[in-house]
Amino acid sequence: MPTGYTAELMEKGQTFPEFVMGCACAFGALISMRDDPNDTTIPEKFEPSDYHSKRLAKSMAELAKLESMTHVEKEAFGQSKKDAVIKQEKEWLVKEAAENRRLDYMQVQVARWNPPTPDHRELKAFMINQISISRNDISYIENSLAEAERKTAIEFYEDTLSAANRSVTHNAEENAKEIVRANERTEWVQRLRGSIYNA
To answer: Are the C-beta atoms of residues 90 and 142 closer than 8 Å to each other?
Structure first.
Protein backbone atom coordinates (compact mmCIF):
# COMPACT_ATOMS: atom_id res chain seq x y z
CA MET A 1 0.00 0.00 0.00
CA PRO A 2 1.49 3.38 -0.98
CA THR A 3 2.27 6.09 1.56
CA GLY A 4 1.96 9.78 0.98
CA TYR A 5 5.61 9.73 -0.07
CA THR A 6 5.49 6.72 -2.40
CA ALA A 7 2.02 7.14 -3.97
CA GLU A 8 3.17 9.20 -6.93
CA LEU A 9 6.22 7.00 -7.47
CA MET A 10 4.07 3.86 -7.48
CA GLU A 11 1.20 5.30 -9.54
CA LYS A 12 2.94 7.51 -12.11
CA GLY A 13 6.67 7.15 -11.61
CA GLN A 14 9.14 9.77 -10.45
CA THR A 15 12.70 10.72 -11.08
CA PHE A 16 15.23 10.20 -8.29
CA PRO A 17 15.42 13.96 -7.55
CA GLU A 18 11.61 14.24 -7.46
CA PHE A 19 11.37 11.32 -5.02
CA VAL A 20 14.18 12.68 -2.80
CA MET A 21 12.69 16.18 -2.69
CA GLY A 22 9.24 14.76 -1.89
CA CYS A 23 10.63 12.68 0.98
CA ALA A 24 12.74 15.63 2.18
CA CYS A 25 9.53 17.34 3.27
CA ALA A 26 9.49 15.00 6.27
CA PHE A 27 12.86 16.29 7.52
CA GLY A 28 14.71 19.23 8.96
CA ALA A 29 14.36 22.40 6.97
CA LEU A 30 11.22 21.27 5.17
CA ILE A 31 9.29 19.71 8.06
CA SER A 32 6.76 22.54 7.91
CA MET A 33 5.89 21.37 4.37
CA ARG A 34 5.14 17.75 5.30
CA ASP A 35 1.37 18.26 5.09
CA ASP A 36 1.49 20.27 1.86
CA PRO A 37 0.44 18.60 -1.39
CA ASN A 38 3.22 16.54 -2.95
CA ASP A 39 3.48 18.85 -5.95
CA THR A 40 4.18 21.92 -3.78
CA THR A 41 7.32 23.62 -5.03
CA ILE A 42 10.17 23.72 -2.55
CA PRO A 43 11.54 27.26 -2.56
CA GLU A 44 15.11 28.05 -3.57
CA LYS A 45 15.42 30.46 -0.66
CA PHE A 46 13.53 30.62 2.63
CA GLU A 47 12.57 34.03 3.92
CA PRO A 48 12.38 34.59 7.67
CA SER A 49 8.94 34.96 9.16
CA ASP A 50 8.11 38.61 9.72
CA TYR A 51 6.20 37.90 12.95
CA HIS A 52 8.99 38.98 15.32
CA SER A 53 10.19 41.84 13.13
CA LYS A 54 6.65 43.29 13.14
CA ARG A 55 6.34 42.74 16.90
CA LEU A 56 9.76 44.36 17.37
CA ALA A 57 8.71 47.45 15.42
CA LYS A 58 5.49 47.69 17.42
CA SER A 59 7.34 47.22 20.74
CA MET A 60 9.93 49.84 19.81
CA ALA A 61 7.19 52.31 18.90
CA GLU A 62 5.41 51.64 22.21
CA LEU A 63 8.66 52.03 24.13
CA ALA A 64 9.46 55.31 22.39
CA LYS A 65 5.97 56.61 23.15
CA LEU A 66 6.25 55.64 26.82
CA GLU A 67 9.72 57.15 27.17
CA SER A 68 8.65 60.45 25.59
CA MET A 69 5.80 61.05 28.06
CA THR A 70 5.90 63.96 30.45
CA HIS A 71 5.47 63.27 34.16
CA VAL A 72 1.80 64.33 33.95
CA GLU A 73 1.24 61.99 30.97
CA LYS A 74 2.95 59.14 32.84
CA GLU A 75 0.63 59.71 35.83
CA ALA A 76 -2.46 59.77 33.59
CA PHE A 77 -1.32 56.70 31.68
CA GLY A 78 -0.56 54.80 34.89
CA GLN A 79 -3.89 55.79 36.43
CA SER A 80 -5.70 54.57 33.33
CA LYS A 81 -3.88 51.23 33.57
CA LYS A 82 -4.60 51.01 37.29
CA ASP A 83 -8.32 51.73 36.80
CA ALA A 84 -8.54 49.11 34.04
CA VAL A 85 -6.79 46.44 36.15
CA ILE A 86 -8.96 47.14 39.20
CA LYS A 87 -12.12 47.00 37.08
CA GLN A 88 -11.01 43.71 35.48
CA GLU A 89 -10.09 42.14 38.84
CA LYS A 90 -13.44 43.15 40.37
CA GLU A 91 -15.32 41.68 37.40
CA TRP A 92 -13.27 38.49 37.64
CA LEU A 93 -13.96 38.25 41.37
CA VAL A 94 -17.73 38.57 40.81
CA LYS A 95 -17.62 35.92 38.07
CA GLU A 96 -15.55 33.45 40.10
CA ALA A 97 -17.69 33.94 43.22
CA ALA A 98 -20.86 33.30 41.18
CA GLU A 99 -19.33 30.11 39.78
CA ASN A 100 -18.47 28.97 43.33
CA ARG A 101 -22.06 29.64 44.46
CA ARG A 102 -23.36 27.46 41.63
CA LEU A 103 -20.93 24.72 42.68
CA ASP A 104 -22.05 25.06 46.31
CA TYR A 105 -25.68 24.71 45.29
CA MET A 106 -24.94 21.62 43.23
CA GLN A 107 -22.83 20.11 46.01
CA VAL A 108 -25.84 20.31 48.34
CA GLN A 109 -28.00 18.62 45.69
CA VAL A 110 -25.46 15.83 45.16
CA ALA A 111 -24.98 15.34 48.92
CA ARG A 112 -28.75 14.88 49.36
CA TRP A 113 -28.99 12.43 46.47
CA ASN A 114 -29.31 8.76 47.41
CA PRO A 115 -27.80 6.59 44.69
CA PRO A 116 -30.38 4.00 43.53
CA THR A 117 -27.90 1.09 43.71
CA PRO A 118 -24.46 0.42 45.17
CA ASP A 119 -23.10 0.68 41.59
CA HIS A 120 -24.18 4.34 41.50
CA ARG A 121 -22.16 5.30 44.59
CA GLU A 122 -19.06 5.82 42.45
CA LEU A 123 -21.02 8.28 40.34
CA LYS A 124 -21.91 10.30 43.44
CA ALA A 125 -18.30 10.25 44.61
CA PHE A 126 -17.15 11.30 41.15
CA MET A 127 -19.61 14.23 41.07
CA ILE A 128 -18.47 15.40 44.52
CA ASN A 129 -14.85 15.18 43.39
CA GLN A 130 -15.56 17.14 40.20
CA ILE A 131 -17.26 19.88 42.18
CA SER A 132 -14.36 19.98 44.63
CA ILE A 133 -11.63 20.26 42.00
CA SER A 134 -13.61 22.86 40.04
CA ARG A 135 -13.86 25.34 42.91
CA ASN A 136 -12.22 28.68 42.17
CA ASP A 137 -9.59 29.90 44.60
CA ILE A 138 -10.66 33.53 44.78
CA SER A 139 -7.90 34.41 47.23
CA TYR A 140 -5.56 34.88 44.25
CA ILE A 141 -7.91 37.45 42.72
CA GLU A 142 -8.46 39.16 46.08
CA ASN A 143 -4.68 39.45 46.54
CA SER A 144 -4.23 40.72 42.99
CA LEU A 145 -6.98 43.31 43.51
CA ALA A 146 -5.42 44.46 46.79
CA GLU A 147 -2.02 44.73 45.05
CA ALA A 148 -3.52 46.80 42.22
CA GLU A 149 -5.25 49.13 44.67
CA ARG A 150 -2.00 49.55 46.66
CA LYS A 151 0.20 50.40 43.65
CA THR A 152 0.58 53.98 42.48
CA ALA A 153 -0.15 55.20 38.99
CA ILE A 154 3.59 55.69 38.39
CA GLU A 155 4.24 52.06 39.37
CA PHE A 156 1.73 50.98 36.72
CA TYR A 157 3.53 53.19 34.19
CA GLU A 158 6.91 51.71 35.21
CA ASP A 159 5.54 48.15 34.91
CA THR A 160 4.35 48.91 31.39
CA LEU A 161 7.71 50.50 30.52
CA SER A 162 9.55 47.40 31.81
CA ALA A 163 7.24 45.12 29.80
CA ALA A 164 7.91 47.17 26.65
CA ASN A 165 11.68 46.90 27.23
CA ARG A 166 11.37 43.12 27.67
CA SER A 167 9.26 42.88 24.53
CA VAL A 168 11.87 44.79 22.49
CA THR A 169 14.65 42.53 23.77
CA HIS A 170 12.67 39.32 23.27
CA ASN A 171 11.48 40.16 19.76
CA ALA A 172 14.94 41.35 18.67
CA GLU A 173 16.43 38.04 19.87
CA GLU A 174 13.68 35.94 18.27
CA ASN A 175 13.89 37.87 14.99
CA ALA A 176 17.66 37.24 14.85
CA LYS A 177 17.05 33.52 15.48
CA GLU A 178 14.38 33.44 12.74
CA ILE A 179 16.85 34.94 10.25
CA VAL A 180 19.43 32.29 11.17
CA ARG A 181 16.81 29.51 10.82
CA ALA A 182 15.75 30.77 7.38
CA ASN A 183 19.39 30.88 6.25
CA GLU A 184 20.01 27.38 7.61
CA ARG A 185 16.90 26.02 5.86
CA THR A 186 18.01 27.61 2.59
CA GLU A 187 21.50 26.11 2.93
CA TRP A 188 20.02 22.67 3.78
CA VAL A 189 17.90 22.65 0.63
CA GLN A 190 20.74 23.97 -1.54
CA ARG A 191 23.05 21.20 -0.34
CA LEU A 192 20.33 18.60 -0.87
CA ARG A 193 19.68 19.83 -4.42
CA GLY A 194 23.41 19.87 -5.12
CA SER A 195 23.78 16.29 -3.93
CA ILE A 196 20.96 14.85 -6.04
CA TYR A 197 21.31 16.86 -9.24
CA ASN A 198 25.09 16.49 -9.38
CA ALA A 199 25.06 12.75 -8.54
So the answer is: no
Q: Cα 188 to chain center, whole Å?
A: 28
Rounded CA separation 161/129 (Å): 44
Residue 98 sits in the same domain as residue 192: no
Closest-CA residue to 179 (of 10, 77, 58, 45): 45
pLDDT less than 70: residues of the chain: 38, 199
Domain with 119 in it: 51-180
**170-195 pLDDT, tens digit each:** 999 999 999 999 999 899 889 988 88
Same domain as 100, residue 156: yes
The answer for residues whose C-beta is within 8 angstroms of residue 69's C-beta and 6 or more apart is 77, 157
- Separation between Cα atoms, residue 63 and residue 85, nearest integer Å: 20
Question: Does residue 14 sit in the same domain as residue 28?
Answer: yes
| H or E segment and range at residue 168 | helix 153-197
Answer whether residue 2 is part of any domain.
no
Give the span between the Cα atoms of 136 and 103, in whole angstroms: 10
Q: For 82-96, what is each residue's pLDDT tens digit? A: 999 999 999 999 999
